[in-house]
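[recover] target loaded
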């Protein structure tokens, strides 16, 4: 069974490729065709085009063990991760997830 949301994982975030390598892999592995011919029609067919988005997973920098990526004023920046406080008491919520094979892992807040 797939968990709806798995815990935040700094190692999952730091395992993402940088933007250059993510873009190269996307093109090399047929990403544009997959998006245009499979994902877009599937999303539209189910009426999710204003709810669901598809993005190119990448990172611009590594995060330390005590940080998470938070979007603030349209800028993604490292923030101190509040250990033991699920999403900083509800003030900082996940806005983007990656699929790790067993569930959805939040990687940006």
């Amino acid at each position: 069974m797939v968990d709806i949301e798995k815990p935040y994982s700094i190692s999952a975030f730091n395992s993402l490729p940088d933007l250059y390598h993510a873009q190269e892999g996307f093109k090399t592995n047929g990403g544009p065709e997959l998006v245009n011919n499979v994902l877009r029609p599937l999303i539209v067919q189910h009426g999710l085009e204003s709810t669901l988005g598809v993005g190119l997973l990448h990172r611009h920098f590594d995060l330390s063990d005590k940080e998470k990526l938070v979007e603030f004023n349209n800028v993604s920046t490292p923030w101190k991760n509040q250990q033991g406080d699920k999403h900083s008491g509800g003030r900082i919520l996940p806005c983007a997830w990656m699929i790790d094979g067993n569930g959805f892992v939040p990687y940006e807040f």
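[recover] notes: The chain has one domain: 10-108.
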